Amino acid sequence: MTNAQPVEGSALEGNRPQPARKVWSWAMWDWGTQPLNTVIITFVFSVYITGRAFGPENDTAQALALSTGLAGLVVALIAPVLGQRSDRTGRTVFNLRWQTWLIAALAAALFFVRPAPEYLWLGLGILAVASIIGELANVNYYSLIDEVSTKANVGRVSGFGWGLGYLGGIVALLVLYFGFISPEVGLFGVTNADGMDIRVSMIVCGIWILLFTIPTFVALKDKPRTQASAKVGLVASYRLLFESIRNLWRSSPHTVFFLAASALFRDGLSGVFAFGAVLASLTFGFSPGDVIVFGAVANVVAGVSTILFGFVDDWIGPKKVILISLGALVALGLGVFFLHDRGQIIFWTLGMGMTAFVGPAQSASRSFLARLIPEGKSGEIFGLYATTGRAISFLAPAAFGLAVGLGASITGEENTAYWGILGIVLILLAGLLVLIPVKEHHAHGEI
């Protein structure tokens, strides 16, 4: 029944099982860097920066969508070339380390974003740069999966890493919520005056990232290069990239089809998390504390679901996991739109259901591609994976923003943030439809 075998010649072929401590150390990068996604991009800082203190609600929501889209375009331009250079130089772990440290510094720098309109674009600018570096770091992190997995367990390893990240997110959220955000006077005498509870939380995020990624860099080392690699300039790097794309199209066209499909649905999945907290706040009346509580519960659900679906991935194959997840997300997203006026219970039930399927789709997408990549090309292919996603990453933010504007013009309401979910659903549905005819990973040609 299983389809979970890599194509012949992939980097997973011949791999032996790694010690559990090495898999844990690799996965700790997901745990350690999760505050960027969970706390900063999704549940805390995004809600803070779109609050009334920074301007009218529709304006701040659309500004967030714009900055998110622009950051995605930058990633699209540079991710595959930097991944290609990591492959060529063999400095994947080195690059991941400095990128991680930079993410930590940018997280801490959000402390300087005070709750006033003149700080809106400073906050969005730092947020955009942090998301760019985060995506580039993901390329290097993903490319290390063949160091810790085999053809028999890559789905479980991918799901474990992603799930551990979600669980790290809940711990980070709870520490910040009970330590700084919820109490009138939090740790070290911090209050909400001048947004200090949120701003200090950003410093904690930076420290968290530095501390919990230490096991990754202790356990994983760059492999010694047998011979020096030739230096390649920027223009030549792009020339090599386009040549690789042409070769990929000739040898394995369904891999290209998968990259296109995953670009669509991963953009939609990112949109669920990027704008979910905004919907909770602006449409369902969640307070910042409510959003954090929701985020904590959601991360438990997402973490457990993703780990369990990792076993399903190895059993029935990653494509089926993705299709199941996307179908559920489309149905649940439509439910959020049509039932938005029935109170917070709708977002608690349907929104929680959506969190259970986002992680499995993302993890299975990673394991799908990992099964195809030959030795020595992980950075370039995962860089291309990032690029194909980010080349159209403006779609979900644009669809969200346009849907909000369309809702305002149709209904005349001042706050139509709930219309944004229709834009996200549209992107998810497009990705689902494009994925359906893509062959299972084992039927692809050699990359």
SSE arrangement:
Layout: H1 20-43, H2 45-49, H3 57-89, H4 92-109, H5 120-143, H6 154-181, H7 196-212, H8 214-219, H9 234-251, H10 253-282, H11 288-316, H12 318-338, H13 344-370, H14 378-390, H15 395-411, H16 420-435
Helix pairs in contact: 1-5, 1-6, 1-7, 1-10, 3-5, 3-9, 3-14, 3-15, 4-5, 4-7, 5-14, 6-7, 6-11, 6-13, 9-10, 10-13, 10-14, 10-15, 10-16, 11-12, 11-13, 12-13, 12-16, 15-16
Explain what you see:
This protein has 447 residues and is an all-alpha fold. It is 73% helix and 0% strand. The chain has helices at 20-43, 45-49, 57-89, 92-109, 120-143, 154-181, 196-212, 214-219, 234-251, 253-282, 288-316, 318-338, 344-370, 378-390, 395-411, 420-435. Helix 3 packs antiparallel against helix 15 (395-411). The two termini are 25 Å apart. 58% of the residues are buried.
Name a few traits of the molecule.
mainly alpha; 447 residues
The total beta strand count reads 0
> How large a portion of the residues is in β-strands, by DSSP E?
under 5%
Helix percent reads over 70%
What are the low-pLDDT stretches, counting only 5+ consecutive residues below 50? none
Termini, distance in Å? 25 Å
Sheet of most strands: none
Task: Let me know the average pLDDT.
Answer: 85
User: How many helical stretches?
Assistant: 16
From the spread of the alpha carbons, the general shape counts as globular
Radius of gyration: 21 Å
Structural class: mainly alpha
Element order: H for helix, E for strand: HHHHHHHHHHHHHHHH
